[in-house]
# Entry
Amino acid sequence: MYVWTGNAFEGFEAQKAYPNSPSIRNMFNVSGFTQALLNIGSLDGMRDGLLDRAFFVLVLLALPAVWQLNRVWFWYVLPAGLVPALTSWFVSYRRYVVVLFPVFIVWALWLERAKSRWLFWYYVGVLAAMQTWAVKQFVNFHWAG
# Structure
């Protein structure tokens, strides 16, 4: 970064221009985080999307199961799942959840334990609908997370 821009911290400087100004300081601003969590104005908004908050809650719900399954995975999911939500206050949080593979393993185990297959197919249907919607948003140059 230094060779390209002349400032090794140019990435941090550029983040000051982002709509929510992501910062490590945001991790300690409890009232700001609470306001961001409750600020739901649309399904997929950049700063007020319901999907980002829903995925955050699902990650939190999966944490105890990840702990029981594998402690190393837990210590991977904890910072990788919480830091983006706390520092950027949910802006594009969905993209951070994609790399939290232990959470998906826990969800798969939960679905496997379900007695009826309708829950599995409901889950598949909801995710297929979300994927279709996201592709439509992307193809039409709209915000897709």
